[in-house]
Design brief:
With 83 residues, this protein is mainly beta. 13% of the residues lie in helices and 34% in strands. The chain is built from 1 helix and 4 strands. It has one helix spanning 52-62; strands at residues 4-11, 14-21, 65-70, 76-81. Strands 1-2-4-3 form a 4-stranded antiparallel β-sheet, with helices on one face. A hairpin with a 5-residue loop joins strand 3 and strand 4. The longest helix is centred in the last third of the chain and has 11 residues, at 52-62. The chain is globular.
């Protein structure tokens, strides 16, 4: 029942990837979600290990980029690759 949108665009020499859903959004510790084995309070009852966003951040960093959480509404991640 959740809708996910994926957007890729260019801002000058930089590339920006946005992945956003229409879910409840991130909690107040959203910056910690990029740490390994960290999960939000709202997802603790679902399966998973908390590795997904740490992998996103590592891949972004390996490509001279940065991953960040987009503020609500919804839950979103922005990956900016520096050109």
């Amino acid at each position: 029942g959740t809708t996910v949108s994926v957007t890729l665009d260019r801002q000058g020499a930089d590339i920006r990837l946005l992945v956003v859903d229409d879910g409840p959004g991130a909690d107040s510790n959203s910056s910690k979600l990029f740490e390994r084995f960290t999960r939000s309070e709202t997802s603790r009852t679902t399966t998973g290990h908390g590795l997904g966003l740490s992998l996103v951040a590592a891949i972004a960093t390996a490509h001279r980029g940065k991953a960040s959480i987009i503020p609500p509404p919804g839950f979103g991640v922005r990956v900016k690759l520096i050109g």
